[in-house]
Structures are given as structure tokens and as C-alpha cells.
Amino acid sequence: VKVKTKMAALILRHLTQSKIALPVIARTFSASAHCCINEGANYDKPTHTGQVWDKDDYRNIRFVDRDKLINPSWAIDLIAEDPVVVVNASHVWSNSCGALGHPKVYINLDKPEIGVCGYSGRKFIQKKYYNKTEHGDSITYDEYLEQMKGDSR
Fold first, then answer.
1. Tell me, what DSSP letter sits at residue 45?
2. What are the percentages of helix, strand and coil residues in the chain, rounded to 5?
3. The Zinc finger CHCC-type domain covers which part of the protein (predicted)?
4. What is the three-class DSSP state of 29?
5. Single pTM value for the model
6. Cβ atoms of 7 and 34 closer than 8 Å
7. DSSP letter, residue 64
8. CA distances, 89 to each of 22, 114, 140 (Å)
9. What are the backbone angles phi and psi of residue 114, rounded to the nearest 5°?
10. pLDDT mean for each 10 residues of the chain (153 residues)
11. How many CB atoms within 10 Å of residue 115?
12. CATH 2.60.260.40 residue ranges for the chain
């Protein structure tokens, strides 16, 4: 309880020094001086980087009277859902085209493993090494090139 009171006192001092009107401060904090009112529904959910703060953490003040914006689509999950591109050749060019795309990347597919583009995360494998149960869904290299024309992802 002592730590919570100190934290509340520090926050209150910071808010009063930053020229915020006292009625706003009084409305923001509850009578117990450590529990914020009007916290958004997502204040305790992890961010896209996995950050979760304790209920009493001073950084939660930024979510008073507004909701914490949470993106449910994590990049690692989106890349995992992307189908493997099956290639007939022993090498491939990864190219996302367009002005905002990335440069061409040469990927060697001689080994019986997936080659991954370091820019886009696209996965490529040689046709003779592809196994649907092990590698998941796939598209052909021609389908990949067609996607890159319109960048339909």
C-alpha cells in the first residue's frame, strides 16, 4: 500500500507540474489514489512486442480516458500463414516489386530445406524437397510472380 501511495503521489506531482487543470486530475484518480478510473478495455492486454505491465505500473497512466490500441495480427503469425513457394529450379529471386518493395534477393535452394527471404519473409523450397505435411500449403513460383505483379498480399 505504501508503494502505491508513493507512486500516486509522484504521478500527481508530475501532473500538477505539467500545468494540467486540477479538475482533470481529480477526475482521473479514484479516492484510493492508486487506481485509475476510465481505463480502456485493452489496458492490460499485451502489445505487439509482448509488453504487459502490472496494474500499479506508472506507465498505465497513458491509457487513462483512452483505450490501448492492440494489433491482433502479429507479424510472426502472418509470416507463418504465408504459403511456401515451390520452385522447379535450384535457385530463385525474391522480389516484392514496386517503389515500396525490396531489392531482388538471390536465394539458393540446393539444400533440402526452406530458403527464406530476409526482407519479406517469403519461404521458398525446391519441388523435389517439398512435403505438404511438413511444409504446409504451397503455391507455384508462377503464382508467386503473378502476386508480385499486383502485390496482392
1. S
2. 35, 15, 50
3. 98-124
4. strand
5. 0.54
6. yes
7. B
8. 70, 13, 12
9. -75, 135
10. 62 67 50 54 74 78 76 77 93 77 88 90 93 92 85 49
11. 22
12. 75-149
